[in-house]
């Protein structure tokens, strides 16, 4: 865990989440982006990767094959 | 546990939630563990601002390359082998008259193949909210005090269009080779929050 403001990831689960998102999103980046925007907007001060996780869970829930 | 947000159920920590998602996706054949490992490796080792620095140094030393970069950033970046999964990458050139700076006001779009993943401050609410509203003030906080006559252009990224700032080549670097030039290029200069 790091609190370095320069770091892209602070904890290992964040890069794994990023990789899972790449696998699911594929070329449909905009669908995920809209969910990420909503998730950040819902709670602008929570951690960035927590918002990303909420958005990803929302995307997965909307897909019937996952 | 507080229930002030109306949650009565226990919410697992993020690491456990990600591990559970990963397990389900692997079980359903939606992703292979080797894919996840390769993405982790790519973004921790292969993609990063050293790639962007190579692009910038090439543009400084090869005018035909620079013209291709400004015309079609993604293709010119791919020429150097840095082909990423993102949409278009547009290179914007700093000059004596114009300073460019990049933000993603709504989330965190960023040119991964040339800069890696964005630093924490790029994703912060403060940077996203303020860079468009008061760019000169924010740039001053980064230590960059621009002359009043310099035009500041703020580029708001999206999933399909991401930006790379082409900084000005520093003075007194005429004799330097491309490698030496690349070592002068910083990530912040390619976001536009600093100059070289």
Task: Write a concise synopsis of the structure shown.
With 66 residues, chain A is mainly alpha-helical. Chain A has helices at residues 12-25, 29-42, 48-62.
Describe the structure.
The complex is a heterodimer of chains A (about 70) and B (about 200). Chain A is mostly helical and about 70 residues long. Chain A has three helices and no strands. Chain A has helices spanning about 10-25, 30-40, 50-60. Chain A is globular. The model of chain A has no long low-confidence stretch (mean pLDDT about 85). By secondary structure, chain B is α/β, with parallel strands linked by helices. Helices cover about 45% and strands about 10% of the residues of chain B. Chain B has eleven helices and four strands, in the order αααααββααααββαα. Chain B has a two-stranded parallel sheet. In chain B, strands 2-3 form a two-stranded parallel sheet. In chain B, α3 crosses α4 (about 65-70) and α4 crosses α5 (about 75-80). Chain B is globular, with a radius of gyration of 20 Å. The chains are: A mainly alpha (about 70), B alpha/beta (about 200). The interface of A and B includes residues 4, 17, 32 and 37 of A.
What is the number of beta strands of chain B? 4
Query: What general outline of chain B do the C-alpha atoms trace?
Result: globular
pLDDT averaged over residues of chain B: 90
Range of helix content of chain B: 40-55%
Quote the distance from N terminus to C terminus of chain B: 50 Å
Mean pLDDT figure of chain A: 84
- What is the helix tally of chain A? 3
Assembly state (oligomeric):
heterodimer
Largest sheet of chain A: none
**Within the largest sheet of chain B, what's the order of strands?**
1-4
Report the β-strand fraction of chain A as a percent range.
under 5%
